[in-house]
Amino acid sequence: MSFWDQIEPYWELLTAAGAILGPVLSAFTIGFILVTKKNSTSAVAWCLLVFFLPLIGPLFFLLFGYQHVRVPLARKRRHRRLFESKHPRQRAEVTRGSSAAARSGDQSAAPWEEVSRLARRFGAFPVTSDNRIKFYHEGRPALEDMLEAIRNARHHVHLETFIFQPDETGKLFLEALTQKARENVEVRLLYDAMGSHRLPQRLLRPLHKAGGKSSVYLPISPLRRRIQINMRNHRKILVVDGRIAFTGGLNVGSEYCGDNPRFGFWRDTHLRLEGQAVAGLQRVFIEDWDFAAGENLYAEPYFPQLEGGGSCPVQIIDSGPDREQKPIREIYFAAMLRARKRLWIASPYFVPDAGLLDALSLAGYLGVDVRLLTQDHPDKWIPLFAARYYLGEVLNAGVKVYQYTKGMMHSKVVLVDGEWGSVGSANLDNRSMYLNFEANCLIYSPEAVAELEDAFRDDLKHAIRLERHAYRRRPLSSRLLDNACRLLSPIL
After folding, report:
1. What is the model's pTM?
2. Is 236 a residue of the active site?
């Protein structure tokens, strides 16, 4: 007997229960949304979804919209306050003077000193000037250099990632980490529960047996009512011996080397950092590790005296749902408003809030050379459809929109006036700005920004430009789909 045959005698009862339960559940959920959602656009979107989908809507809100899971988020906020009271961020890095422009020797960067002070008010680390940066524009060379740095570690390896795939590349990393643990190097692996859900514990046993440690960030546990799939740790940080750090858009997996035929060539932006700014990324990892694993590592061996031998001013900024302010979002907003000549942005997902959308459009209306590079071959379809709605808005403002056709475009880069840049894990979408834990490097060096601009120009050679008039004439079915997916923008 089939499943439908079994429930047929109860069909009328189930229908009646659904007819009664649906409106009651919707009314309760809408009331809860109005109390908990501060952003009016987000509140309206969720209320409409719950109203028109009485049973499915509340389930979607439980899984995607209920950002403030009271117990773990309150614990994370208490932990951050306690950790910062014991270890003030001023102690994590040592600065040499207060002006990024003076340290870089380029007075054209002087206006950005105000942005660096604003970032400090939002909890960013101080600007440090003696840093050396190496940029990577695709995955394979970056991951190879990360493996080499791990193999050369002498005291500790700290790896934090959103996705750790159990594929050939992931196994290479685990082998390298396990070997260092056998050599009595301290090894700590922190990965996100949702992003790395495919990573089985059996693959970690050799690492644990060798003395290495791993921990899961915000584990999902239905029995403890932890089924929230928002509030994910989207940071990508590798710190070796407190002296070398890597960060950017790359996770650990073979697709980031271009080995997955579904994505093909993987275009990303990652960086290797040496100098005092490494301590900022180390501090972000240590605070996250302390929260997830309960081990406080804030000690001198993890923060050695650093001389990077470079001259690139860098500032580390992190953000997450445990903060009242949204630091990376506010810095993006301030940078957009400061643009006078050009504003170039690469982001695979483009689902901005109203303020960021207005700032971007205003720059276009003012005649700033605004260019937005985004995906053509998506890995997620709903964010793509939602993005197409917002692309129409910025096209009308004179923004030049390009779609990358060579493969998967995964870079998260903001470049302003050839003087200031941001590289990190944060996309230009609501998920990165409000829901995820992120970390970016703010760069105050015209020379470093020029290298990123050259890479951006090269990307445009492999991109198609959307024409405003042609874009307006896309089919009605496409526009309806874009508008429908746009209703989900608060969680995209």
Report:
1. 0.83
2. yes
